[in-house]
């Protein structure tokens, strides 16, 4: 198995554990998708993807409809995606994806977390190059062979396809998202969920005590409402 499989196995059940937090994040994704491409999922591929994710997270349909309606209001805040980079203690690179309607607030908060946890905020581009920006899709495994599907999707950008207990996962470079989404829809394959992740190219082993130091910063960051995802180069236990 490749890096995407190991990355997924290491992160499983560690992130998005709080239902309320997941709903908040999906709500922001809906607003950004609607502002970018309109409220019609049939004409807005990004919105279609977010709605699929809302189903995977068991978000009530009325919550989704309410978020779409709210996003069409011209007075609704525009969220901006901002990436923060830095180092946790013990030389672990940290990449923080945020969606914010107040950049000054988010910058101040993220900097305070790094400072309080003995980390260091970095400049733009200081650690981003250490991660591969990928997209992923999950489809039902029933009636499909992961190896055959991988061979069929290679021409559309797929790099790694594997099965777990929740279905078949397809990983590809970030730029291949639209191409693969379209091909899966053309094949009438149900997309259970989809998204983007940043997979570390190299990970670093740490002691148990050092891991606790790093986890302290990660937890602080993930508790912030503006933070969507936190990625790191620490080797998972």
TrEMBL record:
- From the Swiss-Prot or TrEMBL record, state where the protein is found: Cytoplasm
Keyword terms of this UniProt record: Cytoplasm, DNA-binding, Transcription, Transcription regulation
What sequence ranges are listed for the domain TACO1/YebC-like second and third?
79-234
Listed InterPro entries: Integrase-like_N, TACO1_YebC-like_2nd/3rd_dom, TACO1_YebC_N, Transcrip_reg_TACO1-like, Transcrip_reg_TACO1-like_dom3, YebC-like
Q: Which residues form the TACO1/YebC-like N-terminal domain?
A: 4-73
Chief place where the protein resides: cytoplasm
Say yes or no: keyword DNA-binding present.
yes
Is the keyword Chaperone assigned to this protein? no
The record's GO molecular-function terms, alphabetically, read:
DNA binding
Q: Which Pfam families match?
A: TACO1_YebC_N, Transcrip_reg
Q: Which PANTHER family match?
A: TRANSCRIPTIONAL REGULATORY PROTEIN YEBC-RELATED, TRANSLATIONAL ACTIVATOR OF CYTOCHROME C OXIDASE 1
Q: Which family does it belong to?
A: Belongs to the TACO1 family.
Q: What protein am I looking at?
A: Probable transcriptional regulatory protein QO192_01440
Species per Swiss-Prot/TrEMBL record: Flavobacterium frigidarium
């Amino acid at each position: 198995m490749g890096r995407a499989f190991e990355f997924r196995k290491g992160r499983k059940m560690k992130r998005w554990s709080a239902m309320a937090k997941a709903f908040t994040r999906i709500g922001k994704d809906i607003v950004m998708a609607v502002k970018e491409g309109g409220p019609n999922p049939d004409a807005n591929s990004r919105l279609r993807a977010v709605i699929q994710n809302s189903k995977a997270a068991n978000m009530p349909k009325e919550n989704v409809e309410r978020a779409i309606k709210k996003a069409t209001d011209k007075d609704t805040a525009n969220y901006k995606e901002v990436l923060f980079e830095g180092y946790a203690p013990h030389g672990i690179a940290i990449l923080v994806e945020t969606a914010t309607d107040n950049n000054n607030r988010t910058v101040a908060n993220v900097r305070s977390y790094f400072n309080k946890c003995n980390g260091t905020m970095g400049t733009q581009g200081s650690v981003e190059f250490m991660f591969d920006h990928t997209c992923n899709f999950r489809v039902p495994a029933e009636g499909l062979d992961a190896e055959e599907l991988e061979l069929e999707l290679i021409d559309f950008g797929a790099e790694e396809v594997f099965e777990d207990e929740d279905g078949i996962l397809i990983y590809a470079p970030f730029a291949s998202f639209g191409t693969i989404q379209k091909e899966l829809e053309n094949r009438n394959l149900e997309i259970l969920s989809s998204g983007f992740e940043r997979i570390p190219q190299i990970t670093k082993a740490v002691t148990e005590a050092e891991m606790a130091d790093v986890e302290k910063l990660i937890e602080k960051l993930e508790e912030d409402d503006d933070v969507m995802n936190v990625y790191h180069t620490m080797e998972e236990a």
